[in-house]
Amino acid sequence: MKNREFTDTERPYNAYLTVYLALCLAVIMSLCLTLIEGVRRNGARLEVEIVTDIGLQSIMAEYHRELMKQYNLFAIDASYGTALCSKANTDTHLQTYLKKNLDYQDVFLSDFLYRDFLGLELEGAEVQKISILTDRGGAVFRRCAADAIKADVGLDLLEELQSWMQTIEVNGLEEGTEETQKQEYDEQIEEYENTDIVNPTGVLENKKKLGILRLVIDDESSLSQNQISLQNLISSRMQQGQVNRGNMEYDTLTETEQIVEKFVFQEYLLKYMGRYGQTREEGTLQYQIEYLIAGKDSDMDNLRSVANRLCVLREAANAVYLLSNETKRGEIRIVAQLVCSLALVPELIPILEGTILLAWAYAESIYDVKSLLAGGKIPLIKDDNSWHYSLSSALEGSIQDRDQNGSGLTYQDYMRIFMMFTDTDTITARAMDMVEADIRRTAGNNAFRLDGCYEALEACVTIKSSYGFQYEITRQKSYY
To answer: How far apart are CA 480 and CA 68, in angstroms?
Structure first.
């Protein structure tokens, strides 16, 4: 059989087709390889972002459970149940999560069915910035607490609270000059020569010596005897400069914003901390609100201090009312004139009027404090309808029944006033004391420190690929 011979027209076309296909294939392969490399790089970038976000979210998911349970605050405890609070602990946890999410070993039959197309590996991860609850003297703690409750608090109460405070400031009800003035009056009467005048307020003065708690509490044995050591709590460590500090920047609040924040923060404290009449059984101290105001190391001392302050305020307010009431001032004048006439010292009438007026105001203040501690209400400035003691009853030192159905301010309202008058940083530091002390009472938290609690962090993560490129990404996460 003879071989077929190609004509001159057939040979060139077959050769051209082969070269054309070869050139097209080279271009297509280059394009495909370029696309594959682009997919690899962009896929790696996406995975780096996802893995970083998941890692940080996992870190934030490790919030302190007891802190959230008792005080509705979210924060990472950098000690992780150990005695050492360190950012290095958080770095280690973050690296663990990142490595786990970059690892394919837990994928089913990964060695047989899959190939690591991206080849990513963690090169480094570090938390570069942190925000600690105790930063800026506890301002971060205060902001977080306010954020936890602000949706439930109306500002109408703030306006009313400011009105109460203005009344107190205008009338000088917190100055506490009444007792000093009373002592001066009594000394002038006692030092007056050649007279046998009997001070009609003597019975009431003897009752004062019993102490405020015996006068306003029916059963002192029912009071909490709890005490606390303040030596190793956050307020003490802050004074000594022994606290961890964060390095995040914060916006400065305006004066109005500071007032609103303090008010909302106080409402948070009233909700989550105990006080007399509404104790918190799991608290280290039962009267925690009283501690915020007085700062003593025992429930008894804190309650005594607050009761005394309340009595001073009420005595001043009652004196303002008596001075404005001509009928009651007339009663005082009659008693003073009678006593001074019998003793033949009419020149002492003004002094005796002053001491009787203050004694009457004090007797009424004891009634007020007792009513408030029993759950009653007392108006800031009284009128004829809300006044209780007659002059004779006051001078006799008799104790009248409490009216718990009256109108006015409650004990909690007066605590709002006292807290608002207390320095913001002082209230915040003492509140953090209570949080630390209460958390330390729970299992596994005996070394708990608020200055080891992070509420926000910023981390820098570096991930490299076995295909010759690497990514560096910075992310910030916060609870609030």
So the answer is: 14
DSSP letter for each residue of 157-212? HHHHHHHHHHHHHHHTTTS--HHHHHHHHHHHHHH-SS-----TTHHHHHHHTT-H
Contact 174, 421 (CB under 8 A): yes
Tokens read off for 458? 């910023």
Task: Give the closest residue to 433 by CA, choosing from 133, 14, 154, 193.
Answer: 133
By C-alpha distance, which of 267, 236, 248, 254 is closest to 145? Answer: 267
Q: Are 203 and 397 in contact (CB under 8 A)?
A: yes
CB atoms within 10 A of CB 84: 12
Pairing of strands 453-465, 76-77: antiparallel
- Please give the backbone phi and psi of residue 125, each rounded to the nearest 5 degrees, phi first: -150, 130
Compute the distance between CA of residue 373 and CA of residue 366 in angstroms, rounded to an integer.
11
CA angle 145, 143, 231 (to 5 degrees): 70
Task: Give the pLDDT band (50/70/90) at residue 155.
Answer: confident
190, 372, 385, 387, 400 from 391: Cα distances, Å:
22, 22, 15, 11, 13
Q: Are 342 and 195 in contact (CB under 8 A)?
A: no
157-189 residue pLDDT tens: 999 999 999 999 999 998 888 888 888 888 888
For the stretch 144-178, what's the b/e string if a residue is b when 16 or more beta carbons lie within 10 angstroms of its beta carbon?
Answer: bbbbbbbeebeeeebeebeebbeebeebebeeeeb
pLDDT of residue 463: 93
- Name the amino acid, one letter, at 411: Y
Helix/strand/coil for 8: coil
Q: What is the DSSP letter of 129?
A: E
Nearest Cα neighbor of 73 from 123, 14, 11, 141 is 141
Q: pTM of the full predicted structure?
A: 0.87
Closest C-alpha to 380, from 313, 334, 425? 313
**Distance (Å, whole) CA 223 – CA 303:** 9
